[in-house]
Amino acid sequence: MRFGETRLHVDPGPGALVRALTHVPPCNPRELDAIVLSHKHLDHSGDVNALIEAMTAGGFRRRGTVLAPEDAFDGEPVVLPYAQRFPESIVRLQASAGPYRVGDVDVRTSLAHVHASQTYGLHFEYHGLRVAYLPCGRFFEGLVDDYARHAPDVLVINVLRYRDDLSVDHLKWDEARRIVEGVRPKVAVFQHFGTKMLDADPKRLAQEVEDDFGLRAIAAYDGLELDLDTEVAAVAG
Ligand SMILES: [Zn+2]
Ligand SMILES: [Zn+2]
Hints:
By secondary structure, the chain is an alpha/beta fold. Helices cover 29% and strands 24% of the residues. α5 packs parallel to α6.
């Protein structure tokens, strides 16, 4: 994500580094100000060490910040001990904490998500633009209140499952809808779809959310780029 001159890479899963470099124009990791993990699961952190190396020129240039829950650094760390020495600072995220300052951006955490590892949502604020990222986790009513309290302009929300009776630590579509209805962002972006969600046509589902709640709703796809200022302004206007 880029806010003015401040660049953050959030949840670099497998392939994140290659994608950043092959992007046109390239997203140069040496210009990153921070790498942020919502939680340590590999689909969100697989490239974190490679990205830290790239951000710090293989450790030769000590710079940047890595923010992640404690269990990403300790115990069975996904941020490997050698790579933990490369950034200028390491921030062990706590629930409902911050602001942590990264360049021109304030980063705050949500309450703890119900997920298999320590997981926190992220609230970014840059010159009055508020962007919330709601990562993986089981639905509970407290999510709605917590994210609503931060009044995000943009809510990015991970919804893995469409409709099934399995009890898992991920949101289903109707729960994601419920959160968007309660939080009322100007723009909602859905992502992190499982196969059943993809079969259910996320674009159509997002359109329903737009019609039902009168906000802008976007179903993300690989390679999607959004100019959030423009999206928010379009709704506000
Ligand atoms: Zn996870
Ligand atoms: Zn996930």
